[in-house]
Amino acid sequence: MFAVSSKIRTLSDFQARILNAAQETNKTPSSAEIIATLRYFQCTLLSFLKELPPNSQIDFVRRYSTDSNRASLCPNLNYSGLYYAINNLLDVFHLIPTAQKEIAEAILETLKALIPFLDRDSLDQLPVLLASQLGVFPAELHKSIVHVVADCVLPFSLIPDSITRISIPAILMLIFQHTPDPTLHTWIIEAAMAQTEGIYGDVIAVLAKGTSPSRVTAANLLFHYWPFSNPHVLHRKLIQYKVHAWTPIACQYTACAEKGPSVKKCFDPSICSATCTDTAPPIFVCRKCSESIQSEGKVQMDTLLQPMSSGCNATTCQNKSCSSSSRIAVASCFSPDCVKHHNYVPIRVCAECLDRDHSSSSEGENHLAHCGSGVAWGSEMEWEMIEAIVKLLRETSHNLGGGESEGKRPKWLRQLEGGQQAGKEVDKMSDERRMLSRFGIWLMAALCPPVPEANERALHYVMEAVFEWFATTALLPNDNMGSSLEQLKTEFVSDWLNLAIRNHYDVFVDVLSPAAVREVEDRPRVEEMKEALGKLLSLTPYDIVSLETWSRVMPKWLQCIYDNSEEEHLRELKIVLSKIFEPDLCPLPFDTPKVFEFITRELVSCDFERMSCALKWIHQLSRMEIRVPLGMLLTDLAECFKLLPTMDIPKMEEGIDLDDDDVCTHVVVIDILVMQFRLNEISTHEMASTAEKLFSAMALLLRTPMQVGAHVCHSSDMDEFADCNPCQQAAFFYQMVLNLVSSVSPKQEMLIETREEDVADLAEITSPSTSIPSQVLSPYAPNQPHQPSPSLLAPPGSSSMVIQRASEVEEGDEYVGILPTEEIESAMAETTTLTDRDVGRETCHVLMSTLVQGKTGSTPMLADTSPSTSRGGGVENECFWETSVGRFKFSFDSIPAQLRFIYALYKNLDGERDPDVELFILQTLKILCLHCEAMTNSRREHRGFLIWMHEHIIVGEVASLLLIHACTFPSGEEMLWRIVPKHFTNQDWRTRFDAVGRSTVFFHLARPSAVKANKVVQYALAHLFFHLTTSTVDPNPAVAQRALSSLRALPSGTLRLLTTCVESQFDACIIDRPLLIHAMRALATQVPEEPTLTFDFFIQLFETLVLEAQLAAQSEDSLFVQVVDSDDEEGSTVKDLSRTDPMSEIYQRKVTKAKRAIENASTARSISKTLAGKGMKHQLFFVSHDLPKSISLSLRLSLNIPSCHSLTLSSPVPYHVHSNR
User: Fold this and answer.
1) Where is the composition biased (Polar residues) (predicted)?
2) Of 723 and 835, which is predicted with more confidence?
3) Which of 87, 673, 874, 1015 is deepest in the core (most CB within 10 A)?
4) What global pTM score does this model have?
């Protein structure tokens, strides 16, 4: 006993000596010393076995027993100390420099001899200890290790309630991982199946918690020993791993010459020592040797189970008496009663044979049959199965998602590289590991169907793995591996997911939602979001994501991206979202409008919060440069803007900047449109329709005021408009509107010109069908008493109407327009007088009507008895629109989008304070009118609204190139001729002061190209120029000084242009010539440095007068004396001052111009006639409140008026204005 203890200490010292070998070289144990020590223990332990009582030897060695008498059969030595000493030696085994194979063999033989003497705890640790040496001992000893574990340790230690049973999954995992030989895998698993039940669960545990290499073996063995009835699984194609039947250990009998496979094992120590050199029981012998040994004496031997077949018949029932129609094997029986009839090979049986021969009857209750678990829901291994499926599915994801995307490269390329990349070793199982997910799919489809009673938490876990698998395998190359995995999606996964959607739809939606994205430590959340979106994208080509699912999931995703993504994250998310939303890349099974239907639904929800969220989603997509179909977007926004005025829009907080997210709706919308117009390529044939939709949407948006808080631009603490948030947002909004309108409008500006048909149309509107000239063109009709024109002086809506003749016609959109061509049923009516309030309530349609005071027109009146008809003039959507030529009936929504947009811009112009905003609006209006030709194109079909716009908005509010364009329309010209004298002759000096300023701006913006080719514009400018020069002698000093300064500030080119306009008016209107000469004299007086009254100027004027005088003398008696040339005997030829050749073109133009002036003398636009009845009274009289206080006081003192008296309108004071002031 003392010697054994000493040897144990020596063996323990070997560990310390090996660890300190670098410092103490001389003390390193030699390999011979280690082997000798181990051989000593082996022989000692074998001698103890031989000394056991003969009746107890076999039982002592065959199986462990908890009998208390067992310990008394052998000497009381420190067997546990010996076990731990060997265990310590194994810890430093890799440091032993020489004879590792011999030392390893000695360790195995010693441990084999030590097995019967170990206590329960050490015995339970021994299988795992031996299995863990597979990666340490030389590869030549792997078979020996598995042999000791499978044939010696497990049969001895596996008893009921043994802890060794718990270590079987770990043993299997270690052997599967560290042993590439497939025969060793089948050896250990069949050895375990022969000793205990539940190995199916142990293999599932290896799949669930094992390493990647061990899962390859476990998955293949699982489907080999427990096959499924599905033909796709039964006839699965092997890839790299192939199941091989194990080979029994060779005969250990020393005298055996053949060394054939062993079929028996003997536990007698005496026979083991006699037949085998110092080998501890049991020993394994072949058939001949066993017969030879048994012939020498009565020796008890156990029959060994032989390897199961790995061929094609391994999946069919092997029972010879099987009569089942389905012979698919579902179980394997290892009981002696079954295997002895099958040459001691475990037998595979079908379900029918299993029920018949292995039922709960007394005959079959002791059979050791291994079968699968069936459906996992509610079973003990439910979560083990779920975890196994998930880990198998993720094996493909992990291997394909490796460095440099090795798994996604073609197989031939990986084979060409030999599996060596960046110094890595050859991975012979790489493809097998990539294909592990197919086993998970098969297990999921067969054992975890998404039935209604399924565990929803487990289903959620499995779905996450399935979606990740879809995303990983989406871009596999089209090789054998990629095709096989792709085939699984259609054969198994799609049906499984569709069933899950029917039974557990909420779980399905929850997995696809961003709530399923878990935060992982040390990993950005954006990466998790990107992977989750990739899962959703990978499902779209398989008709799994329905429209309902899409509409529920995507709003959550877009809101999550909006809430959790920074600017730098958008570029990373753009790639995935582009593949989902881009029309050219979207794999969804429904059309593009359906893809964005969930956004459309939110936009028209009548709830501001939902609408605002939808706009934020579109804005986020636009920032990621994801295209939204422009036509659909504009249509949806238009519907949204129709509802916007009815929504309860909260006011913005103070201090919100453009860089913040919470800006007003208008800014978000315009930013969206700018980005989408940049992203969408608009073809030429789509440009017109797109522009129409844009204008319509903008017109609707501008109806709602911008909710931007209070203005602070006038605060002394702020930098005016730069620090005013409302002004900032308004400037950004209108600047972007300008950019959008410019992008969809023609680049070429139209030529401003007057169309003769416009004049004729307006004459038709305002004149009866007689030969009386148009009163729109002249305030006085010929051969009529001198009276003011109602169209100029009478207030609109103050006259009554007399119906002379009526005819019933079809209802039209406007009162004006071409009469219907269909047959008219006429009916005479009595002369009836209608007041202004009765217009629009007639019970007949008026074909011809006459307004009192000369206002006439062929206005088709539309009967409307609706009590809701509004009578106000010029309000949106009202039935009647008030103009100077009558009332027009039409709906605001019926007019073109361009005109509605123009109207909305004009309405918003007055409410803006920032000059930059006003500039952007005016530039937008210019593009709409001069580039898109909005008013020109609508001059006939919608001339009623055009007349209303000219009279109520454009002419009175705008001083720009638009005013010149408006002058080319009869209604605009009429309004300008009416409003100019009204403002310049107003009794209020502030109105006159403002008129001077507007006229100055107008002159500065006038373009020569737009003026010189248009006589109507020239006449209007001459009219305006006359009043500006007259204002230089205005009785109010402020007005006079501003007019004088403005006149002197005009550029030389503008003055020359105005001189040309004065000459045109001089030629066109005879009665205005004194006024125009006076205006030019005033200009020459106030701006003497400009050569206005030149010799050429006077020559042209005098020449005009001479020609007109000669023409007038030829037609009637005149005071002028006819000019007679000495060469012309008859004296009938009209001569100019230059004596130009009568046959020349220049001469003919001069004569034609003179004739036209004479013919149009009574109908031409006249400055004198516009002042009829008013004159320039404000220059002859003034009142005290019309002057500053200092001037008023001086005036009273000079006139000797007491200070207690005030000057009023009823007591005018004459005041003579000198022209040289």
Assistant:
1) 767-777
2) 723
3) 673
4) 0.72
